[in-house]
């Protein structure tokens, strides 16, 4: 059943120490800034975070890392011009890093939501990122065994939810939102608007409400840091 | 082919023009971050090329400026862009399924090294203090029907980047089809054969001094 809450603080309240948390967004677009801020205030620590990056600047995920609350991060592109908080923790040996090709990251998240136990893909074959993984040949191509990435919680952002939890997104802010919502045990979504049932075109819904557990309305959310 | 003079090494923009001229009309194409992005400056509406960006869009338009900027509409390099008529949005797993499922006709990537067998190294220098970051490079290189590399022929120190065997960590195995450099265009033909298609400001003998394995001339 959908849980519509009044504040980002209420939305993230169930997140416990040691939880695995997927966080949506690619750059500015789709970053659930207010939910991350609420998680910072909430205090859960020892987190495993799944995100495309490892934080930028001094806010959001970067701040969570700076505060020492992230034990492990699974991402495709940690190293950026302004990822200094991650860089410092990583070089100090205070954070574990699993670098994943971005398509494997997306497909492993998708697989978790779809109940797929594992899959083979050519991506990464012959590279350091396939070391130690099972390799088999299918259709004349060498392929690498990859496992799903599951999570206790996901924090994502959508444009509009209806009271059934159906979601629509805006432009490239969609990115990881739909697959993370499906993969996480509890999916928490911040939206700009909540409308009554029947107000969203059923043909246009991107994430059906079955994947959505908690929705909080954050009007005119701030753009995330890049 | 383009009509520019080729009696000297090409500038990055001239090289982008050469690559653009080789992209088939009507193709679905992903241009990597950095120099490959500049190829889009030389694609015309008549080329009918559809640009894919890994963060969930087909039909990506030009860079957005001023009031056109929408923080929800960016490209893989996190630069604001515009829509084109007929564009579409999709989530990350669908976006990478387009690459991984072999639906993209072509991708253009930068490189640290490419070797004679079409192996590509473009994500990690292999230095012990480097923090690895791969992004979508492995999916693109492995999944697109054709992978074009765009790079300088040598490093700033004059070391070859087109080599017999990559010494840096690989991005993909046997995935590169063509290498576009400031001094020549190379075709990777399989079994270690590399053919010089054309040269810019040098002849094949001079080129051979910069490439540490035997090159073949185009017929």
From TrEMBL, chain A:
Extract the SUPFAM superfamilies matched here. Answer: NagB/RpiA/CoA transferase-like
Q: What keywords appear on the UniProt entry? A: Transferase
Q: Name one GO molecular function term.
A: CoA-transferase activity
Q: What Pfam families would the database entry show? A: CoA_trans
InterPro entries with a match to the protein in the record: 3-oxoacid_CoA-transf_A, CoA_trans_fam_I, CoA_transf_BS, NagB/RpiA_transferase-like
Q: What PROSITE patterns does this protein map onto?
A: COA_TRANSF_1
Q: Which family does the record claim for this protein? A: Belongs to the 3-oxoacid CoA-transferase subunit A family.
Instruction: Output the NCBIfam families linked to this UniProt entry.
Output: pcaI_scoA_fam (TIGR02429)
Q: What is this protein called?
A: 3-oxoacid CoA-transferase subunit A
TrEMBL record, chain B:
Keyword annotations for this protein, in alphabetical order, are: Transferase
Q: Which superkingdom is the protein from?
A: Bacteria
Q: Which SMART domains is this protein grouped with?
A: CoA_trans (SM00882)
Any Pfam family the entry gives: CoA_trans
A single GO molecular-function term is: CoA-transferase activity
**Keyword Oxidoreductase among UniProt keywords:** no
Into which family does the record put it?
Answer: Belongs to the 3-oxoacid CoA-transferase subunit B family.
NCBIfam families xref list:
pcaJ_scoB_fam (TIGR02428)
Put simply, this protein is called 3-oxoacid CoA-transferase subunit B
Organism the protein comes from: Kocuria coralli
């Amino acid at each position: 059943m959908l849980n519509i809450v009044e504040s980002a603080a209420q939305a993230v309240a169930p997140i416990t120490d040691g939880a695995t948390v997927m966080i949506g967004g690619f750059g500015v677009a789709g970053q659930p800034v207010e939910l991350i801020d609420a998680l910072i205030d909430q205090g859960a620590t020892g987190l495993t975070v799944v995100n495309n990056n490892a934080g930028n600047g001094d806010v959001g995920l970067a701040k969570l890392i700076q505060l020492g609350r992230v034990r492990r991060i699974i991402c495709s592109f940690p190293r950026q011009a302004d990822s200094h908080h991650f860089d410092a923790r990583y070089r100090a040996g205070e954070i574990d890093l699993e670098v994943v090709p971005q398509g494997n990251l997306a497909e492993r998240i998708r697989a978790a939501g779809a109940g797929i136990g594992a899959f083979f893909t050519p991506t990464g074959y012959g590279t350091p990122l396939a070391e130690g993984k099972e390799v088999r040949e299918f259709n004349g191509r060498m392929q690498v065994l990859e496992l799903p990435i599951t999570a206790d919680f996901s924090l994502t952002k959508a444009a509009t939810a209806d009271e059934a939890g159906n979601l629509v997104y805006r432009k490239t802010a969609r990115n990881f939102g739909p697959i993370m919502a499906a993969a996480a045990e509890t999916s928490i979504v911040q939206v700009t608007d909540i409308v009554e049932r029947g107000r969203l075109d059923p043909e246009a819904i991107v994430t059906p409400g079955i994947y959505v557990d908690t929705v909080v309305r954050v009007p005119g959310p701030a753009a995330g840091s890049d | 082919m383009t009509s520019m003079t080729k009696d000297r090494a090409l500038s990055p923009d001239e090289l982008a023009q050469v690559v653009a001229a080789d992209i088939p009309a009507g193709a679905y194409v992903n241009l990597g971050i950095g120099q490959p992005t500049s190829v889009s400056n030389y694609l015309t509406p008549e080329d009918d090329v559809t640009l894919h960006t890994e963060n969930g869009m087909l039909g990506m338009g030009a860079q957005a400026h001023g009031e056109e900027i929408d923080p929800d509409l960016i490209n893989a390099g996190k630069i604001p862009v515009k829509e084109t008529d007929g564009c579409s949005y999709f989530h990350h797993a669908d976006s990478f399924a387009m690459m991984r499922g072999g639906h993209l006709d072509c991708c253009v990537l930068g490189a640290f090294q490419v070797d004679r067998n079409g192996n590509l190294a473009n994500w990690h220098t292999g230095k012990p203090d480097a923090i690895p970051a791969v992004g979508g490079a492995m999916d693109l290189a492995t999944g697109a029907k054709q992978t074009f590399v765009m790079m300088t022929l040598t490093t700033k120190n004059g070391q070859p980047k087109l080599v017999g065997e990559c010494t840096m960590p690989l991005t993909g195995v046997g995935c590169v089809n063509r290498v576009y450099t400031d001094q020549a265009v190379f075709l990777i033909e399989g079994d270690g054969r590399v053919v010089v298609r054309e040269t810019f400001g040098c002849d094949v003998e001079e080129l051979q001094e910069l490439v540490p394995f035997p090159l073949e001339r185009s017929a």
